[in-house]
């Protein structure tokens, strides 16, 4: 799309107030999701039952209702939060040749500064783990635009950042063959209106800022392949200022207002925008998206009424209720007697507040009962007050309905309740191992598409970073989750390794589990993870069990240099790293062939030192490969 074509689309969108065909659908969904996730405005989802509830009673019920939808939404979202933190099989930006190492450094710097700026909190991964997950739930039809602040291209390169566009702001767009052609964004702004004319500052005409009034206006932006065009609303009398600024022009759109036109060359090669959602909306034939718990929306909506009725019933019925037998009349106040609520002097009786009946209203009150005149008139004091037993059967039923909502929602979203600690609302279930595995497989099937979306987002953003830093052809970008997506804790991996060992599985199968453990243990220590992988690459007995290694060490067919490498394995690597750092490089970053050459030299040196000595035996015990903790779980 050319700049002229983009400008024409933008003018047409603003002039005719064009919205994409599914605009109402996506904005309504965003409003609903926001209400259920945050709880703000939940009263809008309550409905009045006219036959038994007038407007005042309905208002009272709304005030008493405390929604549980935020808690349900949070319990569903929690597993999705773990997905971006799951170690991917591959996540790297690598140079296509050694001359492009600077390109990798530039891209990595911008990945780290993509969102926020704190050394420990920020970057692309932090944005995905926090903002992107939230947007996927609260507004799946929102957009992310890759923007950057103005910079001097002669001395620096762009620092891209995310611009989050809500579904309400994304008023128009075009997608062809699943590729975004252009996007029009409408945002709210304020602009000044001149009151008392212009003033001359340094021979330039500018508004008199002391006499400006701020007005609400709009800004429209179209993002296309290599260009962006903006229309920024301003006052009609802003022409003098605009003429003083090179490159800006003023246009008037009838019925819409006066706008400043700006053109920007982005050089992004394609529209720098993508949508957040990943689950197609069946209602729009897949043109838009729904959030992960959309299928459970029917249960969530029902919970609003159920919880509202439960809260109302609790307030009306579940409190101590007492029945008090009172004397025929109030005894009055001291020397003055009460008759029908009036004292003898004609004033209102302060004891009964004019009711003529003595009522016990506080724990500080004393109910005074006159002594009967005859024995036949005597009534036991226990008969004066009776506490009513509250009927809780209905409340228990309502609570069971309320508790069941979360279970139904999890069952709908994950086809499993494995993520609920007490899925039957209070009684712990002890499922069989097969049931647990089947349930978790259903959970993984739900989370896997989100993992694919996370990979896609990471790759798209880094590709735009590479384009904007002129490094597109210098690097390879890859991010991929396991095809058999699973969320395993460290304890799960320990148990899995022990199970494999007890089952007599081949050592190389257990090595795969060790690799997953290493990724988990060294998740925040890239250097240690790299050292683990390099050491494993050069380990002399890969895939061998400790028993096999003992046999090989004692066998005459095993090469002496292999035995030396195993015996002095950690010592050799420690010396090589120390020597490489002294030479201002890193042994673990060398190419495999270069590392192998240096290792062979170290082994040969040790053999030369031992050539005049008699070696009686080699150690037969297995020395760990500086691998992740392999503590077995009983």
Topology of helices and strands:
Elements: H1 3-15, H2 23-38, H3 55-64, H4 69-82, E1 90-95, H5 101-112, H6 124-138, E2 143-148, E3 160-165, E4 170-176, E5 179-194, E6 198-201, E7 204-207, E8 212-223, E9 227-234, H7 239-243, E10 249-253, E11 257-265, E12 273-275, E13 279-280, E14 289-290, H8 297-317, E15 321-324, E16 338-339, E17 342-343, E18 385-388, H9 393-414, H10 433-468, E19 475-480, H11 490-502, H12 507-521, H13 526-538, H14 546-554, H15 560-567, H16 569-582, H17 592-610
Antiparallel strand pairs: 1-19, 2-3, 2-12, 4-5, 5-8, 6-7, 8-9, 9-11, 10-11, 13-14, 15-18, 16-17
Structural summary, described in words:
- By secondary structure, this protein is an alpha+beta fold.
- 40% of the residues lie in helices and 17% in strands.
- It contains 17 helices and 19 strands.
- The strands form 7 sheets. It has a 6-stranded antiparallel β-sheet with strand order 4-5-8-9-11-10. A 3-stranded antiparallel β-sheet has the order 3-2-12, covered by helices on one side. It has a two-stranded antiparallel sheet with strand order 1-19.
- Strand 13 and strand 14 form a beta hairpin.
- Helix 8 packs antiparallel against helix 9 and helix 15 packs across helix 17.
- The longest helix is centred in the last third of the chain and has 36 residues.
- The chain is flat and about 125 Å long.
- The C terminus is likely disordered.
Overall geometric form: flat
Radius of gyration: 37 Å
Secondary structural class? alpha+beta
What percent of residues are in strands? 15-25%
Order of strands side by side in the largest beta sheet?
4-5-8-9-11-10
Proportion in helices: 40-55%
What's the helix count?
17
Average residue-wise pLDDT? 79
Oligomeric description of these chains: single chain
Low-confidence segments, given as residue ranges, are 196-202, 423-430, 630-634
Q: End-to-end distance, in Å?
A: 64 Å
């Amino acid at each position: 799309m050319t700049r002229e074509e983009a400008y024409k689309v933008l003018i047409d969108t603003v002039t005719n107030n064009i919205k994409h065909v599914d605009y109402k659908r996506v904005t309504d969904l965003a409003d609903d999701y926001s209400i259920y996730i945050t709880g703000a405005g939940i009263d809008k989802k309550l409905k009045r039952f006219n036959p038994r509830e007038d407007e005042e009673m309905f208002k009272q019920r709304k005030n008493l209702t405390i929604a549980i939808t935020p808690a349900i939404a949070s319990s569903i979202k929690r597993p999705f939060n773990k997905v971006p933190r799951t170690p991917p099989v591959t996540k790297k930006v690598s140079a296509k040749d050694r001359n492009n190492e600077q390109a990798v450094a530039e891209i990595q710097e911008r990945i780290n500064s993509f969102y926020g700026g704190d050394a420990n909190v920020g970057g692309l991964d932090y944005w995905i783990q926090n903002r992107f997950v939230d947007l996927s739930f609260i507004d799946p039809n929102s957009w992310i635009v890759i923007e950057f602040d103005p910079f001097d291209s002669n001395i620096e390169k762009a620092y891209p950042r995310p611009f989050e566009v809500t579904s309400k702001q994304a008023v128009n767009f075009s997608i062809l063959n699943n590729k975004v052609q252009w996007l029009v964004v409408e945002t709210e702004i304020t602009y000044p209106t001149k009151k008392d004319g212009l003033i001359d500052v340094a021979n330039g005409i500018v508004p008199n800022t002391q006499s400006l009034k701020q007005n609400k206006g709009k800004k429209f932006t179209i993002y296309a392949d290599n260009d962006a065009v903006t229309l920024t609303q301003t006052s009609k009398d802003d022409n003098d200022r605009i003429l003083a600024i090179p490159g800006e022009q003023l246009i008037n759109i009838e019925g819409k207002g006066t706008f400043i036109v700006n053109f920007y060359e982005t050089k992004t090669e394609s529209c720098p925008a993508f949508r957040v959602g990943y689950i197609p909306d069946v209602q729009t034939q897949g043109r838009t998206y729904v959030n992960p718990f959309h299928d459970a929306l029917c249960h969530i909506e029902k919970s609003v009424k159920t919880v509202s009725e439960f809260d109302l019933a609790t307030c009306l019925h579940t409190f101590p209720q007492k029945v008090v037998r009172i004397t025929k009349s109030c005894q009055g106040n001291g020397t003055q007697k009460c008759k029908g609520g009036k004292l003898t002097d004609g004033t209102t009786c302060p004891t009964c507040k004019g009711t003529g009946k003595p009522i016990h209203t506080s724990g500080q009150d004393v109910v005074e009962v006159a002594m009967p005149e005859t024995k036949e008139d005597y009534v036991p004091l226990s008969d004066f007050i009776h506490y009513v037993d509250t009927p809780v059967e209905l409340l228990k039923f309502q609570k069971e309905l309320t508790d069941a909502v979360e279970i139904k929602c999890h069952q709908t979203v994950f086809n499993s309740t494995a993520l609920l600690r007490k899925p039957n609302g209070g009684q712990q279930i002890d499922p069989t191992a097969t049931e647990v595995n089947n349930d978790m497989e259903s959970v993984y099937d739900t989370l896997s598409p989100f993992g694919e979306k996370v990979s896609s987002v990471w790759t798209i953003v880094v590709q735009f970073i590479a384009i904007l830093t002129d490094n597109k052809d210098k690097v390879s970008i890859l991010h991929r989750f396991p095809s058999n997506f699973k969320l395993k804790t460290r304890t799960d991996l320990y148990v899995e390794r022990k199970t494999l060992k007890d089952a007599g599985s081949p050592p190389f199968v257990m090595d795969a589990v060790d690799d997953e453990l290493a990724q988990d243990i060294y998740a925040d220590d890239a250097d240690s993870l790299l050292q683990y992988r390099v050491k494993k690459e050069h380990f002399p007995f890969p895939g061998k069990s400790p028993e096999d290694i003992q046999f090989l060490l004692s066998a005459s067919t095993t090469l002496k240099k292999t035995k030396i490498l195993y015996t002095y394995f950690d010592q050799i690597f420690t010396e090589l790293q120390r020597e490489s750092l002294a030479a201002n490089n890193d042994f673990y970053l060398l190419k495999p062939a270069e590392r192998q050459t240096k290792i062979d030299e170290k082994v040969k040196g040790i053999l030369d030192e031992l050539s005049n000595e008699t070696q009686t035996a080699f150690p037969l015990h297995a020395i760990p490969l500086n691998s992740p903790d392999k503590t077995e779980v009983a």
